[in-house]
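Email to the structure team, subject: Methyltransferase-like protein 6 model.

Hi all, the expression group asked for a predicted structure before they design truncation constructs. Nothing fancy, just the tokens so they can compare against earlier work. One-line instruction: predict Methyltransferase-like protein 6, return tokens.
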Amino acid sequence: MTKILFIIAIIIIVQNLSSHTVFSSDQSPFERLFNRFSDFLKDLKNPNNQFENHYNDRLRYYESQLSHTRVWLTVSSIVNVTGHNPNDHNDNDLLIRALELHWRRPEPPQPGDYIALYRKNDSIQIRTFPLIDMKTNHTFPRYYKIDLPFIYQNLTNLNQTNNNNNNNDIYDNCLEYIVAYVNRQGNIESKSCIRMQARWMEEIFERIKDHRLSELMIPGTHDASSYEKYSYDLYEKDVLSRFQYTQDESLYNQLAYGIRYMDWRVAVYNQTNHTDNQTYNWIEEFWMVHDMQRNRITLKQALRQVIKFLERTTHEIIIIDFHRFVHGFDGEKNLPIMRRRLQTFIQMIHEQLGPYLIPYSSKGLPTIGNLIARNQRILIGYAYKFDVRQLPDSIMFWPPVQHLWADTDKLSELESYIQEQICKPSRSFNNIHLLRSIMAELTPTVEGVLFNRYHGLREMAALVNMNYERWFRYRWSNCTNIVAGDFFLGSDLIDISIDVNRERFQSSK
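Reply from the structure team: attached below.
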């Protein structure tokens, strides 16, 4: 305990001595995104059989995508605090969750081309962004961070808000804004929005029903329960909080936006149960954690958010990966106590999620169609499955998802790690026995935290998320299963996953 307090004291001292700097990359990946095929072709040096067999089809698809303009929106995880009074507890002067515009086009933009931002409800054009500087004739970057916030949404109603009586209009579920690429003739070449995608598995069910979860590309969240809305006092003044929270949307909202894999960690703590004014009973309670840092919700509260989503959908399958059990489990020398805690944990999962659980099978994962027919829509990954100590288990639980984790704070090393690992034959998406997740985020080091190298996880996430389009839509889309990231709205991960699944299973009905 003394050692931990000493480290925390050093962190606070370093924080007070250092200025708030925003971590950013010197290079924008969008500047070189579609210039050459080199990155794509590098992946073909040691392809597995599946990748090699589909090389020609994949190359044709890649080329076809270059012939289409694309524009999309994301939400910045970085908050610029320049000019903010640290003694002012009101965050109204801060631009939190700023909108980010992205675009790409096979041909250079022409003078007169622009990106337009529309308000969803009334279709009024509220911002325009020219793509050619008329004075220098230079093309503007393919990324803009603009001065409009994307507010937190109420996603209680998961039904489509159909305004046009057109069931195929994907823009019915747009939230707040629509972005469009408009050419000099006034024609819209591409448009997109941030939207709720609570039923995306249902929408492509005919394509995926004869396949397994291990064959899909599935959007996920790393440390999903470590969520908190941004506040200056929490994030800028509390050093540890900067490295605790990895999301700013609730578990329910994550699912409503389209996330289908969630990385959870659990701990047990003693809590005081007040039975009357005189008596205090100590009880053990399960909490969601980010390693040694306790989050703001209990396990039971987290499960209730999942149940709320399941009750409002019919075809969505969720993977909950209990990847780690920390305080009260790791290092617990009293094995009977640990067994009792695990038995309580298993009982809680069965009580809360029992009707929806997918039972474990040594034969591998059932098809999605079979699961939906039986209304089995929750797969539980359990870190103690097949533990040699014969710890309590459940016939309904599966082994934990295999995490492909680079454990690095450097973007180049993360990219190299994914390059080396993601397309190995044993990890190919057609392995029906294996669910595996690319943990596509950077991991801070102790030295990096002490010397304020990163500022926080929001800045680190922003550096990684801007690469998702290049990495997972094109370079590695053919062998990606689960991608888990931080601050998921900062990337186009959900749309990428849905589009990849449509392409993978395009021969299906």
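The domain at 198-504 is CATH 3.20.20.190 (TIM Barrel). The radius of gyration is 24 Å. Ping us if the truncation boundaries need rechecking.
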